[in-house]
Design a protein that fits this description.
Distance between the termini: 72 Å
Shape: rod-shaped
Order of helices and strands: EHHEEHH
Strand order of the largest sheet: 1-2-3
Radius of gyration: 33 Å
Largest sheet: 3 strands, mixed
Oligomer: single chain
């Protein structure tokens, strides 16, 4: 988190105190916001802290990508399995589209 009193500096101040400010960034892990004419213009960050930020972004992005890919591949596999299973079944139906086993099941339901 940026500390407004310490982590916002003028570019001129950064040029005069570069070593001190670099040490501050390494110690605290916070970036510095550098201003030009009172407006924020540049953000300077320690390389290790920047790498941590990139790693966190990657961790946040990758599980979403993996979930989406996993869900899509699972859905397509389920469809393929369904089509494969249906192709192996030989349906014998009468003129109304009812098979003998369906007719027996229905008849048994009404007899109870």
């Amino acid at each position: 988190m940026i500390n407004l009193s310490e982590d916002i500096q003028s570019l001129s101040s950064f040029k005069r105190n570069t070593n001190e400010m670099i040490q501050q960034m390494k110690t605290k892990g916070n970036p510095l916001v550098l201003t030009v004419n009172g407006k924020a213009e540049i953000v300077v960050q320690d390389a290790a802290a920047y790498q941590k930020l990139l790693d966190k972004i990657e961790q946040l992005e990758n599980p979403i990508d993996k979930q989406d890919k996993s869900r899509k591949s699972t859905q397509s596999l389920e469809l393929l399995d369904l089509y494969g299973a249906a192709a192996d079944i030989n349906f014998a139906t009468d003129e109304l589209g009812i098979s003998e086993s369906m007719d027996d099941d229905l008849t048994g339901s009404f007899d109870e």
